[in-house]
From TrEMBL:
Keyword Chaperone listed: no
UniProt keyword annotations, A-Z: Signal, Transport
Name the UniProt record assigns to this protein: Sugar ABC transporter substrate-binding protein
Family listed: Belongs to the bacterial solute-binding protein 1 family.
Gene3D superfamilies documented for this protein: Periplasmic binding protein-like II
Pfam families for this protein: SBP_bac_1 (PF01547)
GO biological process, one term: transmembrane transport
Organism: Streptomyces scopuliridis RB72
Leader peptide range in chain numbering: 1-25
Alphabetized InterPro entries for the sequence: Bact_solute-bd_prot1 (IPR050490), SBP (IPR006059), SBP_1_CS (IPR006061)
Length: 444
């Protein structure tokens, strides 16, 4: 759980963001304000220099080496300042201090808005990023841009799919679900056959919850400048809540926290029978659940309405240039290389899931066999999901904070008789209060 001191820091940053924005639209800064243009980027490459990159994504190591080989005058220094929230706190500290910020920062899509609204990351449109309007799949591309502003370039994506333990399903005669109603039935079948088996684990996860609401057609967040709307009473949210409440009421969800040792053990021994998660998951199966190789398969994400093909994103990161970067043109050049063309392909070859349409549609990628999944060409399923991600989704400009209080609100539904719908109402109320306290106009 996020500490009070971190929450206070987030609050200070959000307040500074609102003061900086005034009455202007979120992310609507003039593209001409950022970047000297492609020619200046080329000139910077010719001159050379050092680029400090804060990132935890391992495939960037090869990209950095390849970039330095192509541009010998450039030195890329990769720094792991912590994953996710830990890095964001360090980055926010550096921004608040006015020194120590990197030239490039890895920022997950859900967190990017918090940095963009405070104009603490560069608008990359002026550097030439608008040239990539047709390069990336819709979900990641929409997550990094607003109006004429582009605050990062997509590094990867997380279209969702259903990972299921075929060995467990076959043993107990359970049908692989194509709808969420069938998913509930499969959960009942498996748990009745063996009370130690649960359809999945869930102790309350903001990212997983919002992703499934996204797939169900819910759009609880809307932002227009400093005007913010939060509504967890929409039809899509209710569709998700009604189904997930059944799983909670019937104790069909394993009370195991994701990424814990117990979680990996459950995936290995089959007591956790499915995961609905992003397409970046296969590498984690291979490295963390090696003993279950051959047991697992991939299927399309179950649908809320039979016959639909709706998808959603779960996870994924971008690369951004902080306003305080010392070598902005060089930083953009590295971002461009790492997320497009040869750099993107090199990362895909190492197991990263592509955000680029060219890599996503390549025959080599689509026909890649996964020995872990019994030789299945799982990328075909992931690619279909990516191409069917629902449009119009957005996060809060302070989503990092909102997610930090998820378990204080929605999490109660997992450990008490509090209904999930009530938990979401409490989360909405807490998010409204926080946004209002920071100077946003929320639900007015």
């Amino acid at each position: 759980m996020r500490t009070n001191s971190t929450r206070r820091l987030l609050g200070a940053v959000a307040m500074a963001c609102v003061m900086a924005l005034g009455a202007t639209a979120c992310g609507s800064s003039d593209p001409a304000d950022g970047g000297g243009g492609p020619e200046d980027v080329k000139s910077a490459l010719d001159k050379g220099g050092k680029v400090t990159v804060w990132a935890w994504e391992p495939t960037l190591k090869k990209v950095a080496a390849d970039f330095e080989k192509k541009y010998p005058k450039v030195d890329i220094e990769l720094v792991n300042a912590g994953t996710g929230d830990k890095q964001y706190t360090a980055l926010q500290n550096a921004i608040a201090a006015g020194s120590g910020a990197p030239d490039v920062a890895q920022i997950e899509y859900y967190a990017l808005g918090q940095f963009a609204i405070g104009k603490s990351v560069e608008d990359l449109a002026g550097y030439g990023a608008t040239a990539y309007d047709k390069t990336f799949t819709s979900g990641p591309w929409n997550a990094v841009k607003y109006d004429k502003s582009i605050y990062a370039l997509p590094m990867d994506s997380g279209p969702m799919a259903l990972f299921y333990n075929k060995k467990v399903f076959d043993k107990h005669g359970a049908k692989v679900p194509t709808t969420w109603d069938e998913y509930v039935e499969a959960a009942r079948t498996l748990h009745k056959a063996d009370p130690k088996i649960f359809i999945t684990n869930d102790t309350g996860d903001a990212g997983a919850t919002t992703s499934l609401i996204w797939q169900a057609g819910g759009r609880p967040y809307k932002t227009d400048g400093t005007d913010v709307s939060i509504d967890f009473g929409d039809a899509g949210t209710k569709t998700y809540t009604n189904t997930w409440q059944k799983l909670l009421d019937e104790d069909l969800l394993a009370p195991v926290t994701s990424w814990s040792d117990e979680w990996y053990k459950g995936l290995a021994d089959g007591s956790i029978a499915t995961l609905s998660i992003g397409a970046w998951m296969p590498a984690n199966f291979t490295s963390g659940v090696a003993s279950a190789s051959g047991d697992w398969r991939v299927a399309p994400l179950p649908q809320w309405t039979k016959g639909d093909t709706a998808g959603a994103e779960n996870g994924g990161s971008s690369l951004a240039v902080p306003k305080a970067a010392e070598n902005k043109e060089l930083a953009y050049a590295f971002i461009e290389y790492a997320t497009t063309g040869a750099g993107a392909s090199a990362r895909v070859a190492q197991g990263s899931f592509p955000a680029t349409k060219a890599d996503l549609g390549s025959k080599t990628f689509l026909e890649t066999a996964f020995p872990y999944f019994g030789g299945q060409q799982a990328n075909k399923i992931f690619a279909d999901s990516a191409n069917n991600v629902g449009a119009g989704w957005s996060y809060l400009p302070y989503q990092v904070y909102a997610n930090s209080v998820f378990n204080d609100t929605v999490g109660k539904a997992y450990i008490s008789s509090t209904p999930l719908s009530k938990g979401l109402e409490d989360w909405q109320r807490a998010s409204i209060k926080y946004g209002t306290d920071q100077g946003f106009s929320v639900n007015k």
